[in-house]
Design brief:
Layout lengths: L6 H20 L4 H4 L10 H14 L1 H10 L3 E2 L15 H19 L4 H4 L2 E4 L3 E4 H27 L22
Parallel strand pairs: 1-2
Antiparallel strand pairs: 2-3
Helix pairs in contact: 1-5, 1-7, 3-5, 4-7
């Protein structure tokens, strides 16, 4: 394992490894699990992946490019993902996200320290450097990996019988596995 103490380099490693982790976790799932929500208000794995694709194509790389074009500029609020768009097949959604990630990683690896110091002003979080936003992007991936794991745990939890005493419920619902 490569050793680095630089959070940015660690972030690039996370961004590079997330597509394989998501694919390994989700590709073998049946369609019904892809669209299953573990609790009211929680996203299905398909919803999570659709959100990640939206962030990958319409949010963070757009903001980073804004910072590079005009240091200190206000960061545009992204358009929300279209609720009226037809649901993509999950394999196509996964492939689109993986392709966009590969393109974004190639771009990120070209950035210089001077470019990473460029910043933008976020309406809620203030001045954010490109380096900070890219590092947050990796954290965003990890948060959604945790969410995907919890969803699969919620699907399995009702079927582990007495072993449920060993584990906390992944989502507090009225009925396990509902």
């Amino acid at each position: 394992m490569a050793e680095t103490t630089d959070p940015y380099e660690l972030a690039l490693g996370v961004l590079a490894s997330t597509p394989a982790q998501v694919a390994t976790l989700l590709e073998p799932l049946p369609q019904e699990v892809w669209t299953w929500s573990p609790a009211p208000g929680e996203w299905s794995p398909r919803d999570v992946l659709a959100h990640m694709l939206h962030v990958e194509t319409a949010v963070i790389p757009v903001r980073v490019r804004q910072m590079l074009d005009a240091d200190g500029a206000p960061l545009a609020r992204p358009e929300p993902a279209s609720e009226s768009a037809p649901p993509a097949q999950v394999d196509a959604l996964l492939a689109a996200w993986q392709s966009a990630r590969a393109e974004n990683l190639a771009f990120l690896r070209t950035l210089t320290p001077a470019q990473l110091a460029h910043s933008g002003v976020h309406s809620a979080y203030g001045r954010i450097s490109a380096r900070e936003h890219i590092t947050e992007w990796a954290y965003h991936d990890l948060e959604h990996l945790r969410q995907l794991h919890a969803t699969l745990e919620a699907r399995l939890y009702p079927a582990i019988g007495g072993f449920r005493a060993l584990y906390s419920r992944p989502y507090p619902t009225d009925e396990p596995g509902s």
